Please model this.
Amino acid sequence: MSRDSYEVVLLPGDGTGPEVVAEARKVLEAAGENSAVKLRFSPVQGGAQYYAKHGSEWEPGGREKVEKGDAILLGAVGWPGVMRPDGNIAGYELVLGLRFGLDLYANVRPCKLYPGVLHRLGKEYSQVWKPENVDMIIFRENTEGLYVPAHGELTRGGATEVTVDTRIITQKGAERIIRRAFETAKARTRGAPEDGVRRVTCVDKSNVLRGCQFFRATFDRVAQEYPELERDYAYVDAFGQWLVRNPEHFNVVVTTNMFGDIVTDLASVLQGGMGFAAGGNVGDRFGMFEPVHGSAPKYAGLNKVNPFATFEASVMLLEWLADQHHDPRLHVQARRVQSAMEKVLAAGSARTYDQGGHATTSDAGDAVAAAVRAVA
Ligand code: IPM
Ligand code: MN
Model:
């Protein structure tokens, strides 16, 4: 039974978050024109700046509204100098709180270089990697590892002497993220750019850490169910250099929470910088999509930052929603936004400052929305 609309909860959050979310909304609205299915948007205020003003991270009833929607689009959270008394960043509830609270165990971060986009290695804008050689998806475990609130400190006489962060790797947590990586690799038509091989790379530090040995053993066990896919391994330190040297080798990558946090920022350099890095936080029931770049306080309110990561996140949102509800009309909308983005990027007609251009955030939104309307 298909519905005539779906509700997207918008969490604009802090800093430049509201600006990029506003542009994504423009683009998504354009994608819904001429379609029998529409998205409805319900914005919920919250985050660090909201907390600084009101003493709570959510607008009244905000957290409840989040669960009533069909999908979530998050801008960014965090503001300099705003911390919670418990030592967590203000804005915690919108990111880590929802990852844990909605059990969004898979952080899915595609790393793809679009034609027309320049890398961000050093100060020169140029093309080091061929776009066709950068096309991978990194799966970051999102509900355990070093992010589990198993932290503590020993304070004596008012002075902190010892701090502890405990890394937790569970069988359930490892298995479900690894399985998702294999399922995605299986469903993907493209293999690694290097050789077309459909490959899943396990990134860990199993030469030292027990949790990583367990993660790798789980990887090997799950891999047996997918004989058609190649298994591949990399220690996280070596992965750092291979990622930059031979991105074409990678197809689907799976790793633990903290390593995934680090390597996806590194990987963003391959795809044009954080302005292009998008992520999906996905569980069995809920999905939250976001640009990875954060609130970028120094650019807040300037209409300057690159909204393409949020457009990419919007495509991911549409695809996820389409799959969840078996609604091919949403796949059509996702494809329209995707090809509009590709056209605008290839033409280089909406380059923001991070790409050496002069387009504003809203110029880029207008350009992509117009291109969406032009896609038949
Ligand atoms: C990310 C961010 C978050 C994380 C922060 C904002 C808590 O860096 O989504 O990668 O560490 O996961
Ligand atoms: Mn991060």
